[in-house]
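Example record used in the benchmark description.
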Amino acid sequence: MSSPIKQGLLKRRGLDAAELTEIKQLAALCNNHEGLDLKLNWGILRQRPSDQLNDFLYYVDGQLVGFLALFSFAAREGEISGMVHPAHRKGGIFQILFEAARQESISRGLNSLLLIVEGASPAGQAFVRHLPTTYDHSEYKMVLDGPQLPQEMHKHLHFRAAHPQDIPVLSYISAQAFQVPQDEINWYTEQKLSEANRRYYVGEVNSVIVGIIEVSFSEGSALIQGFAVLPEYQGKGYGRQMLARTVRELLRANPQSIWLEVMTENKQALALYQSCGFKEIGCYDYYRLPLKH
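Model output (structure tokens):
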């Protein structure tokens, strides 16, 4: 007996291999149509928990024509990113996906959603203009284009892999560097530190951890993220040396690309990445939508 043809909205707790393939094909079509690089966090999509509703798919006669992903990196804040097949736009599909994600976010007690829209996406920009959103920030996507790395390590800096016992310090440094309440930082766990597609590094000065940096691997590429140095140790060259050491470690693994994201207004970090050989290849705008409970 054949399976019923998928039709309309499907809410998923975890994605199977067939759905991931459909999403990837739809993303490639949308990217080619508008010359975009949609932000879908593939490493996360492939490891969705089966007990949490995060992904919303829309089918027409068995074909996936719309997808929206919900992410939550902070305790009371969600992020969403999605797409609709160019031939099925202006039919209200994204509104259906968005409303399903909004209701799920409210049920979780989230206070706001960040809508991620590529700056070069007319369809995405038009959608957020019709919502009561406020502009929050923008981030450049940067890719390594010919490393320009300092040769010598700072003699006082010790660079090593993070250990589970470092987790409280990692949370503290992130809270200090990103000005986020420490009790909202929940992404450092023993499970995360042990995952094969992730690496966590720390920089120590006189046995004190002063900086952290994370790498995740997906689709043959390496993403540098969570890069933070304690404020009192910034401006001393430790961050540059940590970044250089991380890039050297990654080059040994020979990924297809090494990339990162940085807020456009963070001129100091932008200059650091540019000086080490990273170049801007895209820009993502973030719009905040308050959620009414």
